[in-house]
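Fill-in record for Neural cell adhesion molecule l1.
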Amino acid sequence: MVGKPQPAIRWFKDGAEIPGVTDEVLRIKYESDKLITYTCEGSNSEGSQNVVFKVNNKEPPEVIDWLMRVANDSTVHVLAGDPVSLNCPAKGVPDPTQMWQKDGADIPLEGSQIELQEDGKFLTIPAANESDAGVYECIVENPSGKLTLRYKVEIDEPVKFSNESEAENFDPELESYIEKISASPGETVTLQCPMVGKPQPNITWYREDPMEFERVPIEGATENQLTIEVTEDSVGYVCVGSNPHGNLEKQFQITPPTLPKLNDPTEKKIRVKPDEDFSLDCSIEAPNAETTVKWLKNEQPLTSDGSKVIASEDGYTLNVTKADINSDPGEYRCVVENPSGNISKSFSVEKVVPSKWSTWTEWTSCNCRARVQFRNRFCQYNNGSLVAPSDRSQCPGEAVQMRPCDDDCDSEWTPFGEWSPCSVTCGDGVRIRTRRCRDPTVKPCTGEETEREPCNIMPCPENQLACETGMMMNNATGECEDIDECSGMYFNDCTIRQICVNTIGSYECLCPAGFATHRFKKKCLDINECTRGTHKCSHECVNTRGSYECKCPKGMTLDSDKRTCRES
């Protein structure tokens, strides 16, 4: 500005004077994308004049160059379980917004382990898993432009065995997986090397040369299994799986089949009382210097201390003195090993848990036929579970009581049925009709079940003898023949639950399995196998008509034999 006298210069920013600035030129630094008004005022004694500047700064989004070159459209490999951190530092005027997408869709943060930090500048996953694999895009945008930073995340895995059973082959002393195979020369053996990983591991097979102490690669063997024919020189093989995250090795030792043999291979269950001594026997046939035995308790090594736990001189018997029922019970196992392999035997040592009788149940209703009623009680542990019959040493006495009863048991007869045919075809005979007691569960009805009366169809011809009871005359032959009372054409007085068996001149009424014949009358009474002790239930017996059922206490289930209870 010019004027006479020379005008004084003052600067204002959004109406507020900028102190100390009197030059005609104002240098500013763009610090905001907002609209800012700068005013230049020149004044002298003759008046004043203003010039207004309106300033607005905008820059499109920008990502650090080196990060763009290295990371954009790149693949990030991370092991499962490791953290993932994706960066998206950007600048622009106004400050850009940052939004993340996975596989083209917005990332739902709620219920996800994915976290966004510093307004989206960082995406983190604390422990990556297979579901976190995919293409991640950071979309940076402001009014001046848009930019996308892309990562492809792949979740890798180191080489591992595909089945958990391989853990049994781990030798902690050698820190190696060693599978011992028993095979004779001439046998065909398939060696399994079930290794997986991401990327898929490369498999290499080697044959161990015992003379040169080296491993010789087997050309062309790259699969997870190798089939070989055992020879005298077949001593050892090795498979090695490798990927960028490491190697895994498994050794195979092939030996002739001469495993140790236990004298008694049966697994044992031992119950001990406080301060009681117990012994575990793991003796074998024909022990030798190459055979060793070790003891484990709950799969942890167990050694002889010479006082509490004492092993025999050869190590095959373990003696425990003065049992502490709080610490000594557990799962014991002996492992017998020789150069051909090993065998083991398990012992389950349990403490004797205090048990006692439950209170008696209510008396059953009166069995009107037998005129008895029952009640029972159960031997149970303090926690309420039932004790097996073989372990009832702490429950002396009987589990079932029986007493006579004479309750009022009403029953009534059905009407008599039709008369049977006469027992003979000529001469004096007899015919029968019967009735049934309506309720077979109550005491017998008063009176007879069968009614008989004489009959005479016609006189017998002269010189013809009458047939005995149970026989009838064959008019064609003139001979007496047996009547089959069980055929249905003639009457028999077997009850509906009895089995009729014809005999010469008569018949028998037999009872089916689970029933017994009444001592005085031809009736079948149910056999209560539970009270007689003839059942085979390991725990609770429940009588049913003609049989019985076995029940198990809480926490146990009935085995396939329908008799034995086992833990669920």
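KEY FINDING: The radius of gyration is 49 Å.
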